[in-house]
Amino acid sequence: MKSVRHAFTLIELLVVxxxxxxxxxxxxxxxxxxxxAAKKTSCLSNVKQVALGTFMYAGDYEDTAPLVQxxxxxxxxxxxxxxxxxxxxxxxxxxVTFKPETGLLYPYMKxxxxxxxxSTASKLSLDNTYLWTSPPFHLVNFKNVPxxxxxxxxxxxxxxxxxxxxxxxxxxxxxxxxxGARLTQSGGVTMSVSVDxxxxxxxxxxxxxxxxxxxxxxxxxxxxxxLGNRPDSYYSDILTRDQSxxxxxxxxxxxxxxxxxxxENFYYRIDKPSN
Length: 275
Fold this sequence. Notes:
The protein has 275 residues and is of the alpha+beta class.
């Protein structure tokens, strides 16, 4: 008796392929969302760790927060210390090396990945135009530079008097750091070392987590926040507005103090209204 061999017909094969394609279309976005949710949770943990490191720093420096950057000069060498790391500039060779271990907060965290958001590494273009435009320095080891977080410029200014952490009004309502980015000349986004609210021509707080930004507060808690979009009159031109909106850049706003109010920077300011 002859054995009968069974095989897929062309129609059956096409049906199977169609089913696989439909399942893939359904499941791949679910997997992507789950992956992004995990990154968002990791980012929120990082923000809390940076806040804790800031408190430990303040405990060693008479209750003051670090400045966003300090400069040390030694002959042709300049060390530009930021809260997240240090740019070691050698003017004799026109090179810049990133050294995370000499960042202002590094001794209190001992972990470089903490100061970078896991969601933004693939989204931000890592150019160094925010450091120097001339002479044309060559930046080495740039892949090790963290991206994604900006500290509140009013809590950690770049010059002047360091801010006392306990002198800040309503610590639970004052931003310490947040997901941050800034526009590039080409209309993309790059890393930003600080966030400053409604001050610059374009926003610098970055809603990189499905339309929300992770924010760490001066009292140590962290949460995900929606951002406000500025009125057109706040931008220098329509193109800047469109690029800011397209790149999810905005401001953390308090509903009681909308755009146009004298306290529109409520969450960024270290002083608060008395009422």
